[in-house]
TrEMBL record:
<dbReference type="GO" id="GO:0006865">
    <property type="term" value="P:amino acid transport"/>
</dbReference>
<keyword id="KW-0547">Nucleotide-binding</keyword>
<dbReference type="GO" id="GO:0031460">
    <property type="term" value="P:glycine betaine transport"/>
</dbReference>
<dbReference type="InterPro" id="IPR005892">
    <property type="entry name" value="Gly-betaine_transp_ATP-bd"/>
</dbReference>
<keyword id="KW-0129">CBS domain</keyword>
<keyword id="KW-0067">ATP-binding</keyword>
<dbReference type="InterPro" id="IPR000644">
    <property type="entry name" value="CBS_dom"/>
</dbReference>
<comment type="subunit">
    <text>The complex is probably composed of two ATP-binding proteins, two transmembrane proteins and a solute-binding protein.</text>
</comment>
<dbReference type="GO" id="GO:0006970">
    <property type="term" value="P:response to osmotic stress"/>
</dbReference>
<keyword id="KW-0472">Membrane</keyword>
<dbReference type="GO" id="GO:0016887">
    <property type="term" value="F:ATP hydrolysis activity"/>
</dbReference>
<dbReference type="InterPro" id="IPR003439">
    <property type="entry name" value="ABC_transporter-like_ATP-bd"/>
</dbReference>
<dbReference type="InterPro" id="IPR017871">
    <property type="entry name" value="ABC_transporter-like_CS"/>
</dbReference>
<protein>
    <recommendedName>
        <fullName>Quaternary amine transport ATP-binding protein</fullName>
        <ecNumber>7.6.2.9</ecNumber>
    </recommendedName>
</protein>
<comment type="similarity">
    <text>Belongs to the ABC transporter superfamily.</text>
</comment>
<dbReference type="Pfam" id="PF00571">
    <property type="entry name" value="CBS"/>
</dbReference>
<keyword id="KW-1003">Cell membrane</keyword>
Amino acid sequence: MIELDQLTKTFTQKDGQKVTAVDSVSLSVGEGEICVFLGPSGCGKTTTLKMINRLIAPTSGRVLINGEDTMSLNEVELRRHIGYVIQQIGLFPNMTIEENITIVPRLMGWDKKRCRERATELMSMVALDPKLYLKRYPKELSGGQQQRIGVIRALAADAPVLLMDEPFGAVDPINRESIQNEFFQMQRQLKKTVIMVSHDIDEAIKLGDRVAVFRRGKLVQYDHPDTLLAHPKDEFVGAFVGADSTLKRLLLVKAGDAATQPDTARPDTVLATAYQMMEESDNRYLTVLDGDRRALGYVQRRVARNGRGPCADALKPFATTVSVDDNLRIVLSKMYQFNSSWMPVIDSDGLYVGEVTQDSIADYLSSGRSRRQTGQAAIVSPAVAAAEASNA
């Protein structure tokens, strides 16, 4: 876990005037999380990032990694245990790709066999054939390929912490999305604690577990991406996340979050009863479940109106279903594809958990609810907790 406790950096200009680049920033990043520092140029994002690995010394405040103040550590050893990725990539042109990737492991005394195995493993993670690329030099790779090498080089020594300063900013949009996806998949496997600097709100909400918005050196808001979009703290944050913030939320909210639990029927439920249930709820359909709560299909109200047998006789199959973890953008895409206003939501065991409708999606997005981060809560020091409360 990383904690910033009242972290401040003041520079003295040539005329002797003092400028505060970072002003009493406090936040915590839980183990295995991705935190994105977001804000316009000159707001203090990169300065804050560089104070974490002591490339810039703080004027006051503390950086703690797993509870240990980084100022008490040898700075060389500190940096060897923190991966660092920059926008300019920074590959050494006179070294092969393998030598570039393994530079830190070699400094740490790893043998050649272990270095080669690590380089091969990481190359495979970013879809680059080790046999084709390890012996090449940076100039023989495209910009997107070089950026991939820059990312995995920072992971080579298996450092638990990764700092990334606009790592994908210089890559064209098509390669950027591909590299972001590859990085996200790698993070799901490796579970590093990551702090990333970005000025791109779409990148922040796509990759971040939490987003820190900076303005003029101050931390303005620190929240889960969906909370940031649903409840911007002030006009500055609202303008930064954009007027289409509700549409951006479609990528963050899951079908399970917007699902409702309407009445359902059994295969042996008589159609007259099913019709009465639909009349009372003003629904045009009724989902039919078996005894294990598996969705078998549905019956239509117009069919049930004059039906005499059980629901099993009038059962229609679903055109498609959605998973509880499908985001609302996928859900809406399926709705338009199949010309449907609703879909059953199925969990990982194949069981019915409810249904999502166009109305339930609209209700969720307009209700003020937001999807907060799940999983184990981060342990936050009292100082950080107080600071975050003031920024909420």
